Amino acid sequence: MDIGALQFFSWPGRRVPLPEVYERALERIEIMDQSGFDCVWLAEHHFSTYSVCPSVHMMGVQAASRTNNIRIGMGVTLAAMYHPLRIAEEIALLDHFSGGRVNWGAGRGFDKKEYEVFGITPDNGGERFRENVQIVVEAWKNERLTYHGKYWDFDDVEVLPKPYQDPHPPVWMAATSRDSIEAAAKLGYSILMDPHSSHEEIREKRELFYDTLREYGHPAEDRVLPTARLIAVADTDAEAEEIASQGAKWMLGSYISRPDEEMDPVDRYVQKVMIHGTKEKVLDEILRLREEIGLDSLICASLSHDSFVRFTNDVLPKLPR
Q1: Which of 28, 175, 243, 268 fits 232 for a cystine, CB–CB 3.0-4.6 Å?
Q2: Smallest Cα–Cα separation from 289: which of 223, 230, 222?
Q3: For residue range 255-308, what is the model confidence (pLDDT) as tens digits?
């Protein structure tokens, strides 16, 4: 079982100077590097204090310079909002700076403000995203790139540098909806799974992904599907549940909107989405998900610094690797 961590750069209430937000996050990544985490996944967002990291590629260089062991994951590059050759160049450069430690996760994004400012529409965002990912991979694999698609045309372009990893870093497409999961599987890409779906929804989406892979003739063996889970660890179950509840309220108020007709959205997160409790309960829940839904790669999204410390010290060493 791979164990990663999702690193946000949240600035709630702008209570501290922004440089302090970055330094604290990088110090945490240094701890991950020495504690046995397999990968840190860096979250890209724009125009919001939810996570003030508009370039995971630049942040990845900082993370790589301060670590030696951990892989540096893009969680994710919002690929529809870039020129694809710029992505290919920057990720390849990061791969060199990190000594071949890059995991590339690419996503289309979903925030209306980001789409509006970058000139992307819901109608073309998915197509642009998938075309851009295809171009990036082709630019890495081929000495020179010729590509003619719906949005981009390139003739005999030498894209440099090529990645450090041969032929390129591992690639995942972030996929949440049924359509996006099927689209990724049809192209043969593995998927990153989001922190906002319930455990049961994750199980159903994994099944859909593998069924679609097989339907379109792609190999299903040896796939790893990193799955983000929001985690709170405390001395008591009640304390952890309160951390989870406060985290859900902040997310729903600042960035995420996931209405649920059947129950209060905060309750939905706490009861169906998040993993919370004492260190023993959190460990048992992760092991249960490993057995029941096939969780093979956990991306831990800690809901507080104390939860991160407790997970790192008390849960991580006991997880099967």
Answers
A1: 243
A2: 230
A3: 555 555 567 999 999 999 999 999 999 999 999 999 999 999 999 999 999 999
Residues 167-182, mean pLDDT to the nearest whole number: 97
* Cross-strand bridge partners of residue 191: 173
Question: Does 2-236+275-318 carry CATH code 3.30.70.2190?
Answer: no
Q: Which residue has the tokens 């690193």?
A: 7
Give the type of residue at 308: F
What is the C-alpha to C-alpha distance for residues 149 and 135, in angstroms, rounded to an integer?
Answer: 9
- How far apart (Å, rounded) are the C-alpha atoms in residues 19 and 112? 27
176 vs 192: CA distance, rounded Å: 8
- CA distances, 46 to each of 255, 259, 293 (Å): 11, 23, 32
> Token match 């997310």: residue?
251
- Judge if pTM exceeds 0.85: yes
**Per residue, what are the HEC states of the chain?**
CEEEEEECCCCHHHCCCHHHHHHHHHHHHHHHHHHCCCEEEECCCCCCCCCCCCCHHHHHHHHHHCCCCCEEEECCEEHHHCCHHHHHHHHHHHHHHCCCCEEEEEECCCCHHHHHHHCCCHHHHHHHHHHHHHHHHHHHHCCCEEEECCCCEEEEECCCCCCCCCCCCCEEEECCCHHHHHHHHHHCCEEEECCCCCHHHHHHHHHHHHHHHHHCCCCCCCCCCCEEEEEEECCCHHHHHHHHHHHHHHHHHHCCCCCCCCCCHHHHHHHHHCEEECHHHHHHHHHHHHHHCCCCEEEEEECCHHHHHHHHHHHHHHCCC
User: How far is 129 from 115, CA to CA, in rounded Å?
Assistant: 12
Q: Which residues face 67 on adjacent strands? A: none
Q: pLDDT for 94-123, tens place per residue? A: 999 999 999 999 999 989 999 999 999 988
